[in-house]
Amino acid sequence: MKTETYARVLFAGPDLNHGSFAELTRRQFAEQFGTAVLGDLFDTDAGYDQLWEQVRECLHGEELPLLLVDLDPLGGSPQLDWLRGELQALAGERADRLFVCAGNAEDVTALADLIQQPEKHLGCVEVPQLPESHSWSCIPPHRYRVLLCNGPRCTRRGALPLWKLLREELKAVGRLETENGVHITRTQCQFPCDQGPTLSVYPSGEWYRIRDAAEVRRLVQERFVEELAVPELIMRG
Asked: Do residues 66 and 122 make contact, with C-beta atoms less than 8 angstroms apart?
């Protein structure tokens, strides 16, 4: 894809090749940008090798400046900084011709507007580096390890706001990263997606589904405060 500002625009993210989400996304992109854009979509479920190869071809063919749009709903600032660092390493002295931004694959109209606003894009020079020592270098205190799925399908079922609520509720009752409390981690797909959002608890090995705020609050109160079983929320095989 080419714009007035960029010789090439590439898009990268999960679930862009196969499945219902990919089908919908590809149709919407083709309607918004034209069918040629489908050759600029790179599914990252299997890694980034194909994307890096395309970037190398763009550098070799002087298809610059280039914009990479990150469509990963879990990306955030650390993901963008990682992408910038990788692009900087690939481009070397031409890193100043490469740019990145984060976009929402489900809103192609807003995405089209974002692409036309280079002031909202980040360059690939002077990328922030990880410090040699940092405050998160220690294992936080906890009794339970909770894994909340933020894979693409659970995310579409509302897992991100539920993740934030889970942290808030655990903190409010004094169970977030305490000796008798919970350490929570977001994960990619855990399965089974059709029962999600999926939450698993260790070391007990329980699998729960939390579909709304009420179920999050109930799980926190009954499972982690009162330490009772919550059979109604247990996933069935």
From this structure: no
Q: What is the CATH number of the domain that holds 183?
A: 3.40.30.10
Exposure pattern of 18-29 as b/e (b: 16+ CB <10 Å)? eeebbeebbebb
C-alpha–C-alpha distance, residues 204 and 223, integer Å:
12
Cα separation of 117 and 54, whole Å? 23
CA dist 92 and 62 (Å) reads 14
Given the DSSP bridges, would you call strands 98-102 and 122-123 parallel, antiparallel or unpaired? Answer: antiparallel
Cβ-proximal residues to 15 (8 Å cutoff; 6+ apart), any chain: 21, 22, 25, 43, 45, 152
- Where does the pLDDT of residue 136 fall: very low under 50, low under 70, confident under 90, or very high at 90 and above? low
Q: Which domain does 221 fall in, by range? A: 144-233
**8-state DSSP, 11:** E
**Domain assignment of residue 68, yes or no:** yes
Tokens 């000796």 belong to residue: 179
Model pLDDT for residues 146-160, shown as the tens digit of each residue = 999 988 889 888 898
Q: 3-class SS at 185? A: strand
| Contacts (Cβ under 8 Å, ≥6 apart) of 156 | 21
150 plus 95 within the same structural domain: no
pTM for this model (two decimals): 0.69
C-beta neighbour count of 146 within 10 angstroms: 22
